[in-house]
Amino acid sequence: xxxxxxxxxxxxxxxxxxxxxxxxxxxxxxxxxxxxxxxxxxxxxxxxxxxxxxxxxxxxxxxxxxxxxxxxxxxxxxxxxxxxxxxxxxxxxxxxxxxxxxxxxxxxxxxxxxxxxxxxxxxxxxxxxxxxxxxxxxxxxxxx
Length: 144
Prior knowledge:
alpha+beta, 5 strands
């Protein structure tokens, strides 16, 4: 802290956002930094993450925009062989809307968070689907 600076306001301490929480306007030198933040955020909140898409520039192959999502985002496409399948896989996607979108500034090459949705909901578990949860989520459910 600088000399002569006022001490931090203790009444505002509850509103401090942790560094691992993504926010609109955050900037990253490269996509690896952004991916590490997203993985860290998912780890703190207890969900797995994946990359939804990445748009590449045709001239040099550099990624200009991408989106990171919860692994339960969306839904699986219908299997063309569905009528032949005897034991179909359980549906693991629950339309979770947690996401972080990134756009590259074409002049500086820096990536910036353009949109963020952080409302993650733990889906209701029935005993037959607990094997689909990752280890971290199983531990959280045991302690609740």
